[in-house]
Amino acid sequence: MKVVEEVKKYVKEEAEKETNPFTIDIYYTHIVPMVGYSKKLAKKLDADEEIVEIAAWLHDIGSLKGEYENHHIAGAKYAEEFLKKLNYPTEKIEKIKHCIISHRGSLKIKRETIEAECIASADGMSHFYNISSLFNLALVIKKMGVEETRTFSKNKLQRLWDKMIPEAKEIVKEKYEAAMLLLNEEK
Fold this sequence. Notes:
mainly alpha, Hypothetical protein af1432, globular
């Protein structure tokens, strides 16, 4: 598991950099919970736990380096470069890259492995773990107004829910229902 520790260290160092547009908060409010959820799903679904954990740590590395819009593509590239330096096996790197590339719910990229399903679902689950991070993204980073933030957060949480596999939905169902209750507009 030495590789996992090196990856975790790398991601934390990138998150701590002043150039990270999301600040270190993303590490604690999104990445760490996402890793926990991904490991839980990997165990439950008999996925390759090492692939899942490494992909979970690296899934947003492109965003940490300032390439938010195409962070899935940039992230796969950064992950490959870093893992090659660690002499990680090429076939495993390819699986990790697929997990990173296909984790985004807004782009509907086909997930071809159970490991990729774990990563995409855990990514969504982590936002239900701490929805205030979505408010921060909208209000502070994207400079949206209050009403726009509510709509943005509701739509994003719905997309995240829609991309999750049933096993993931089962885990965060109560949080999803509570968030939708609070974010739905009252007329």
